[in-house]
């Protein structure tokens, strides 16, 4: 009977120890579950923050695209105006070349056929020089406009 009592006592102690260990295990499991929930919430918050940052980045990129499109549209409009100015300058240059040729022909004809006086001859030469300067200025303007038109589309 004594052995039975000892065995019962050992069983009771083992049951108490088992109950304590089960309680400790339940506490550890509860703590782990709380940690998992906290980690999940932290990860969820981090994902929300990353999503917010990505959304802001997309919005900023979209805004930059809109600005670039507006700049491109303005550049194309400016280029069209520059091309129109270039055509007008080219027409002026062609007209100036024609006028210069006509003036040169008149001068040569007048010098040869009429035997102009020296002062009249000098006057016509000055007029011819003035027209040459206008032609040079128009040519330079056309050249600058042409360079600007070519460079403009690459810069913007």
UniProtKB/TrEMBL annotation:
Residues 134-156 are annotated as: Disordered. This is Uncharacterized protein. It comes from Chlamydomonas leiostraca.
């Amino acid at each position: 009977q004594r052995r039975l009592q000892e065995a019962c006592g050992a069983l009771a102690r083992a049951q108490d120890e088992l109950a304590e260990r089960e309680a400790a295990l339940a506490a550890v499991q509860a703590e782990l579950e709380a940690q998992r929930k906290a980690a999940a919430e932290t990860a969820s918050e981090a994902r929300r923050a990353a999503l917010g940052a990505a959304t802001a980045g997309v919005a900023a990129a979209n805004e930059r695209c809109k600005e670039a499109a507006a700049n491109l549209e303005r550049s194309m409009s400016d280029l069209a105006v520059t091309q129109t100015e270039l055509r007008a300058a080219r027409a002026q240059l062609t007209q100036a070349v024609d006028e210069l040729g006509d003036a040169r022909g008149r001068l040569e004809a007048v010098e040869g056929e009429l035997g102009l006086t020296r002062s009249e001859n000098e006057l016509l030469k000055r007029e011819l020089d003035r027209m040459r300067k206008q032609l040079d200025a128009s040519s330079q303007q056309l050249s600058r406009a042409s360079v600007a038109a070519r460079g403009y589309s690459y810069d913007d």
